[in-house]
Design brief:
Elements lengths: L1 E2 L1 H4 L22 H6 L1 H20 L4 H11 L6 E3 L5 H5 L4 E3 L2 E8 L5 E3 H11 L1 H5 L14 H5 L13 E5 L8 H13 L3 E4 L6 H12 L4 E4 L12 E3 L3 H15 L18
Parallel strand pairs: 1-2, 1-7, 2-3, 7-8, 8-9
Antiparallel strand pairs: 4-5, 4-6
Helix pairs in contact: 3-6, 4-11
Bound molecules: zinc ion.
Length: about 280
């Protein structure tokens, strides 16, 4: 299963985020830019200061829970997500590849230290009280970007151990998905009976390439997404619906079809929104 931003939209995470967790209505920050330009890091962290609490407080929805139930029932070998919010794991999925990384972790680019995003949040708030005072003016969707003079005053977080540059553990625009991550997904596609794409228009090549691989290997592709996707021509089944409606119904149907050694039925709340 390959999932995208449409899965997390009902959890209150807007779909206009890019794969690095940036807000798209401001210009997305490029990988190289983040590494080389202090102002890009100041821009990233000022947005992230207000964006992170939205992610941190988001809860998994029925689509996440249905996929976790399908994994428990043995229907899913691997779940690959383009989302960086960790909601699949929090819903109970275990076999997950975070294709574009995870926003809850930050890494020092010098010494490799791993730092929790919550720790960084406390530092950002402590070091940038003026940003917090901007309140509603600084919105997480980047609508109101900071003026240059305000941006120059932003204190970006650094590694406590070595004072190195820290970066969220996510793949920015212009960055590359680690090779071993891609290799693991390629193996899973090769071993799978089929590929199910959920909640993604597959605009980003890093996800679309697995559809191309599945098609090349003759694996059937099914897509659940309200809008058109880049892989529509490759799919044998297209369901133009929201995942949080279709997936609980699918999970329920598969439970009904399972014989006496079936796993315990999922909680009734899973079916509340079934069409
Ligand atoms: Zn360090």
């Amino acid at each position: 299963v390959l999932t995208g931003a449409g899965l997390s939209a009902p959890s209150g995470i807007p779909t206009y985020r890019d794969q690095a967790g940036n807000w798209l209505r401001g210009s997305p920050i490029q990988h190289r830019e983040f590494l080389t330009e202090p102002s890009a890091r100041q821009r990233y962290w000022s947005r992230s200061l207000v964006g992170w609490p939205v992610i941190a407080s988001a809860q998994p929805n029925d689509a996440h829970r249905a996929l976790a139930a399908l994994e428990r029932a043995g229907h899913i070998d691997l779940l690959v997500t383009q989302n960086v919010d960790r909601l699949h794991q929090r819903a109970g999925s275990h076999r997950v590849v975070d294709l574009h990384g995870r926003l809850d972790r930050v890494q020092c680019l010098s010494c490799g230290a791993a730092i929790g995003r919550d720790v960084i949040q406390r530092e950002l708030e402590r070091d940038n009280p003026a940003l917090l005072q901007l309140g509603g003016a600084l919105r997480p969707d980047g609508d109101a970007d900071l003026a240059d003079c305000q941006l120059a005053a932003v204190i970006a977080p650094h590694c406590r151990a070595c004072n190195g540059i820290v970066m969220p553990d996510v793949v920015f625009f212009g960055g590359t998905v680690p090779h071993e991550r891609v290799a693991r997904v390629n193996e899973a596609v090769a071993a799978a009976d089929a590929l199910l794409v959920v909640g993604s228009s597959l605009k980003v090549f890093s996800g679309f390439r697995f559809c191309r691989l599945a098609a090349r290997l003759g694996k059937p592709i099914a897509i659940i997404n309200p809008g058109p996707t880049r892989a529509d021509d490759l799919a044998v089944l297209r369901i133009a619906q929201c995942a949080e409606r279709v997936l609980p119904a699918l999970a329920a149907r598969l439970y009904q079809d399972t014989s006496a050694d079936a796993p315990p039925a999922p909680t009734p709340s899973l079916f509340n929104n079934a069409p």
